[in-house]
Amino acid sequence: MAEVVIVENAEAAGALVAAEIVELIDGRPDAVLGLATGSTPLPVYKALREKLTGRDVSQVRGFALDEYVGIDPAHPESYRSVITREVVEPLGLDPRRIHVPNGAQDTIQHAGDDYETAIEAAGGVDLQILGIGTDGHIGFNEPGSSFASRTRVKTLTVQTREDNARFFDSIDDVPKHCITQGLGTILRARHLVLLAFGEGKAQAVADAVEGPLSAILPGSAIQLHPHATVVVDEAAASRLRLSDYYRYTYANKPSWQGI
Length: 259
Ligand code: F6R
Known about the structure:
Strand order of the largest sheet: 1-10-9-6-2-3-5
CATH topology: Rossmann fold
Distance between the termini: 14 Å
Strand content: 15-25%
CATH architecture: 3-Layer(aba) Sandwich
Largest sheet: 7 strands, parallel
Number of helices: 8
Order of helices and strands: EHEHEEHEHEEHEHEHEH
Shape: globular
Number of strands: 10
Bound molecules: fructose -6-phosphate
Oligomer: single chain
Radius of gyration: 17 Å
CATH class: Alpha Beta
């Protein structure tokens, strides 16, 4: 099962995960990071800004999880723009080494395969940062997604469009389709780190970590991964049945193990 780490708040989660990423980059300067967008990973990126200062990050590579289909890449809420603004620029990464799925309509038929090829050519993702949707999606793998799925076009649920409407002027502006790494793609990353904060994510977290393995809850796919870490605040952990055990396990974990 995934290792669950319950922390005091999002800031503490960001510091913990950023420290793991720094260690990874120290050992492998051309590490391949799997980058999530949305609100959840922001504390990680913020903590990384500080921790990476003075380090050479010119070789670091990255692959975003997903992108809206048909959105202008220059639109401030395209995931290309978000990754540039929140990750590439503040961390000083080389933009040529940071990939985002191509949501352009005219090449969309082969954009998924192209992305899979690029991930493979990079030798796979070392550490994949994940958030989780209130409906249990990871990446934009909505309920019903195959555990074997690869990067492809998906239709966003109404709930996800409503959740993401806060980033746009109105829900009508939220695209209906996306291109996302599949669950099978995500499962090939060497280390999964899923973060979640707040009561609104509590049920999705409990279902993903402790519920049955099911396509109806795409996040449950992490149970198939040999090295998955779930970092949550108290509110997001509130529906976990084994929360006492997770706390006990983490408190007694040898420090050399990391997360
Ligand atoms: C974003 C992504 C999504 C989000 C999820 C949670 O790249 O893949 O799975 O992680 O929708 O979004 P936030 O973090 O905004 O609550």
